[in-house]
Write a structure and sequence with these properties.
The protein is an alpha+beta fold. The chain contains 14 helices and 14 strands. Strands 1, 3, 4, 5, 6, 7, 8, 9, 10, 11, 13 and 14 form a twelve-stranded mixed sheet that branches. Helix 10 packs across helix 12. It starts with 5 loop residues before the first helix and ends with a helix.
Length: about 425
Amino acid sequence: MKLIDIDKWQEIFLTLKKNKLRTFFTAFGVFWGIFMLVVMLGSGKGLKDAAYSGLGKLATNSVFINPARTSISYKGFPKGRLYSFNNEDTKVLLERVKEIKYLAPRTMGFGNPVNNVVRDEKVGSFNVMGDYPATNFINPMQFVYGRFINDTDIEENRKVATIGYRVYEEMFNKDEDPIGQYLRINGVYFKVVGVFKSYRASNNGGEFDNQVIYLPLTTTQKTFNLGNEVSAGYAITAQDGISASLVETKVKAILRDRHNIHPDDERAFDGFNLEREFKQFELLFNGIDGLIWIVGIGTLFAGVIGVSNIMVIVVKERTKEFGIKRAVGATPIKIIIQVVQESVFLTTIAGYVGLSLGVGLLELISYAITKSGADTEMFSNPSIDFNKAITALILLIISGIFAGLIPAKRAVKIKPIEALHDE
């Protein structure tokens, strides 16, 4: 039996047109199921994209370790002791923990943070960090002017600064080129070599980033008499394929040993493991995705069951027709194919319309969000993955086949003699 059979297709169209209202409501169930599945999947992706974009380009296999107060007395040292990392710690970590890809020691908290930055008549209060170039690999920035601090700045103790965009807006005139200009920071002049914008969302660290002034760590330590302190701890990224948790364990073990911290004293360190947080994030959205599929498929199956029920009624109405076909030699498989073909056609057309309108609605929402300039920190770029769309279509076709099998088997059981006498 050929699928491209004009007579068969005309017969299908005539059957569907015979009761337009019934056909419409039957198709609507399938349409609504696939439409809602697409819209929910697209909305879930919109939430996920907004959440992930909030992290900017922050390396997700990173860990941040800061010194805190000890909570357990150890080797004669009392609990509640304050301590600080130092330059020697940095050297030891780089030598002994080969799983480290990037390590950025940081220091801050020197001077009075109130009105600590001056340029001509302009005064501002900003966060000043002594840092390493590796920071820009762990938390990449988008540069508007110039560059980030580099290795030469560290080695030569240069008095240079890379500033956040908020600092630039307050300390410079609009469209003024800041490169080569000077800012007086805590009474010391630093030359501006770069201006950046954070990739992170403002409510997820972006606002803080844009108000930071980065200075070379070595310059900061010497200029402000900080000795060899690394008071703000370490930002660390693991080598590709290496767990950040493994790096965290090794680093903390070394730091405990060097600073006489009890092996069980977890409160002696602040910070967080971004890799662990990111995995929990992914687990949450995978759960949301799974829930959407369950609800969407349930709605879709409800529509498919409606198609199956209607096809049972259609088969009953066409009892004589199927009986005559059996009488003139139609094989059971031909009858089954005809009924299943009608079911698949109805579900596929309804599903395709639902899929198209669902994708169209998502594109319209995305376009409206972009054009309106609305805040996209909670919802961004709603769309459906191509593979998921294909999966939905395949699922729909398979559902159409199953929807037609039950009534098809009923049609096959019709005996020609009984069918001709059926009223």
